[in-house]
Write a structure and sequence with these properties.
Layout: H1 2-31, E1 37-41, E2 46-47, E3 52-61, E4 64-65, E5 70-78, E6 84-85, E7 89-91, E8 95-99, E9 107-114, E10 117-125, E11 130-132, E12 152-156, H2 159-168, E13 171-180, E14 192-193, H3 200-209, H4 215-222, H5 234-244, E15 245-247, E16 252-263, E17 266-270, E18 273-278, E19 281-283, E20 291-293, E21 297-299, E22 305-308, E23 311-316, E24 319-321, E25 325-326, E26 335-336, E27 342-345, E28 349-354, E29 357-363, E30 366-367, E31 382-386, E32 389-395, E33 399-400, E34 404-408, E35 411-413, E36 427-428, E37 433-437, E38 440-441, E39 454-456, H6 478-485, E40 492-494
Parallel strand pairs: 2-10, 11-40, 12-13, 13-16, 14-25, 15-17, 16-18, 16-19, 17-22, 18-23, 19-24, 21-26, 22-27, 23-28, 24-29, 28-31, 29-32, 30-33, 31-34, 32-35, 33-36, 34-37, 35-38, 37-39
Antiparallel strand pairs: 1-3, 3-4, 3-8, 5-7, 5-9, 6-8, 9-10, 20-21
Length: 497
């Protein structure tokens, strides 16, 4: 009986192996099935405004192109302002010409159909060498930003003027020259942000708002506490914030002219809609009076740009950077006078940050202030990050909670000027759905999928093409494209068009 059982077991094992081999061979044969359907190809995805691009739609049957079939075409979507096809049908394999409209940054979606099969191809207009008042926002911001609502024009060159007109709303504000929102309280670029480099104006401010006569005395006495103490610095911090904060109201565009720079300022985009910030060098949103957090040292409260319950926001061709070296608190704990470069929270949605440089910063971009922020409807917060250059950034590039976030054609890098250790780049956390496409990572931390979230591909349940059109750059072009185009001062500004 034991012998019989052994024979049976051997036979069953052999049958199992045969069946497994059969399934394997069947699987191999299935993978080798010849392609049937449409394929659209083109040498280029981008073309100049008003130019033409050619493409070919070939119908394949049993793995071979069938030139006897006729392919029909249509323009399904067009944000270029009047794209047109040379012909609406052609033989399979023949080239067709598409003439683009004139709107820089616009896209055209061509759909082809043949014999029950369909395919599509998206073409884009190359970025303009000028910033125009009439430019259309990319990504999610393109769903709602309306430049026609900025009905008044003004050019400003001082912090008081910038604050005044930004707070009124309805203005197209052109920024000229260098504006120091700290009114001389910040030390020179490259200085250590502590009492040793305090300016006379900073010392005078401290003397007027506290019991101490200098900034150095304030640091020494206020921060000389044990790690368990929680010293309150709210009063003097808020007094400083009232000087440097730029409150931006509805229907406001702020565009820099000829190397415009705003240093020491903090843009507050709160409870508003339809805001554009372009072509400005933004530096040093310093909080000289950070508050103490038990176990985490001294932490700043001001961002360069803070978006709180904002809708239809476009930030483009700006450079965000820190220029000051951090000192230490008197009790040797962490002394952090910088917070975020561009943070977003609450019900903020339809935001695009494009063609920007984020430079020499630690906690760079936070989307969602805590796990509960936006938890009621994670898909309500929609963010697009296109063509940005993240250089020497420690983390949060971005850090995403409870949002749909599309991270496309970004370049992450570091150089010899790096101060902060590279910890994470794209950090998808609680409730986030991130579509990260065609990004380049050199000498930095890889994308982090911590927190139970997933970096989704475009064909997952978050497909950005359901919201707007876009084109991925060729892999070899990502670095060169972004280095050439990202940041303030890379393109001219045309204030008339």
């Amino acid at each position: 009986m034991e012998f019989f059982d052994g024979v049976v077991m051997k036979m069953l094992k052999r049958i199992g192996m045969v069946l497994a081999l059969a399934f394997l061979l069947a699987g191999c044969r299935q993978e080798e099935d010849e392609f049937n359907g449409l394929i659209i190809s083109s040498a280029y995805s981008f073309v100049e405004a008003g130019g033409e691009v050619t493409f070919c739609a070939a119908f394949y049957k049993d793995g071979s192109a069938d030139s006897s079939e006729v392919v029909n075409f249509c323009v399904e979507s067009d944000s270029t302002g009047g794209a047109s096809l040379e012909s609406k049908s052609a033989k399979s394999g023949e080239y067709v010409s598409l003439k683009m409209g004139l709107v820089a940054g616009g896209f055209v979606k061509i759909v082809a159909e043949c014999n029950g099969s369909s395919a599509y191809k998206i073409f884009g207009i190359s970025p303009s060498e000028e910033i125009l008042v009439s430019d259309k926002a990319l990504g999610f911001a393109g769903l709602g930003v309306d430049m026609s609502k900025m009905v008044n024009k003004i050019t400003v060159s001082t912090g008081s003027e910038l604050k005044k007109y930004a707070k009124i709303g309805g203005y197209l504000i052109f920024v000229q020259g260098n504006i120091d929102m700290s009114e001389g309280m910040l030390p020179a670029e490259g200085s250590v942000m502590d009492g040793s480099s305090a300016t006379a104006k900073m010392n005078a401010f401290v003397a007027s708002k506290s019991e101490y006569s200098t900034y150095g005395e304030w640091i020494k006495n206020t921060t000389n506490v044990s790690a368990s103490e929680d010293t309150k610095t709210t009063s003097i911090s808020n007094a400083y914030k009232s000087i440097i904060q730029i409150t931006v109201k509805n229907n406001t565009a702020i565009i820099g002219l000829d190397g415009a720079c705003v240093r020491g300022g903090s843009f507050s985009v709160k409870d508003v809609s339809n805001v554009v910030i372009r072509n400005i060098l933004l530096k040093d949103a310093v909080d000289p009076f950070p508050h103490h957090e038990s176990g985490d040292g001294w932490n700043a409260q001001h961002d360069l740009v803070s978006i709180d319950n904002g809708k239809n926001i476009w930030i483009d061709h700006c450079t965000f950077e820190d220029t000051l070296t951090l000192g230490k608190a008197a009790n040797s704990e962490k002394w952090q006078v910088y917070d975020g470069l561009c943070d977003m929270k609450s019900t903020t949605t339809n935001v695009t940050v494009s063609n920007c440089v984020f430079k020499n910063h630690d906690k760079t971009m936070l989307i969602g202030s805590e796990d509960k922020d936006g938890q009621t409807d994670p898909t309500a917060r929609k963010i697009s990050l296109f063509y940005n250059y993240w250089l020497n950034c420690g983390q949060r590039c971005p850090f995403v909670r409870n949002s749909l976030c599309h991270v496309l054609n970004n370049f992450y890098d570091s150089d010899s000027n790096r101060i902060y250790k590279s910890q994470t780049s794209i950090n998808a956390r609680a409730g986030s759905v991130v579509c990260a496409e065609n990004n380049s990572f050199d000498s930095v931390a890889s994308p982090n999928e911590a927190g139970g979230s997933i970096l989704y591909s475009p064909n997952s349940n978050f497909n950005p093409t359901e919201y707007y059109l876009y084109v991925t750059l060729e892999n070899k072009d990502v670095k060169s494209w972004i280095k050439k185009n990202a940041g303030a001062g890379k393109v001219n500004v045309n204030i008339e068009n």
